[in-house]
Fold this protein.
Amino acid sequence: MSGMTGYEMFWPIVAHVALVYVLYALLGYRRRRMVDAGNVRVSDYRENRNEPPQSLFVKNCIANQFELPVLFYACCILLYITEADNIVALVLAWIFVALRYAHAFIHVTSNRIRYRSPLFAAGYIVLGAMWVWLAVWMTFPNG
């Protein structure tokens, strides 16, 4: 296994899954707060037509965690299967996850595109680099 001792490539996936769980908890918390404050009724969330921004930002952030990260999960698994999960791949994976955390933080707080967009773009580029690494490794597996 390319200098790695086991399942290191899966820890960034676990870290991202933890982010998704935190976001779901935050969504529930914000929705409950809006209901308790009398700003919305529980039934208003059935169709989500007029979701308040406080919870809408979180809901949209959660949806975003199932876009690029799906490709991330696939790449991590393929890196592991092909034994291309060395330090380069692992560092790229952790950078991607760190960027997802930063992107999510902006998304659920200020939601300023000015700050969110560069973080998304950086993650997009890092994930692209992971796929390039995988392609190069599969093309030249021994060197």
In short: The helical segments are 11-36, 53-64, 68-81, 87-108, 113-139. The CA atoms of residues 89 and 130 lie 6 Å apart. Residues 8-139 form a domain with the Four Helix Bundle (Hemerythrin (Met), subunit A) fold (CATH 1.20.120).
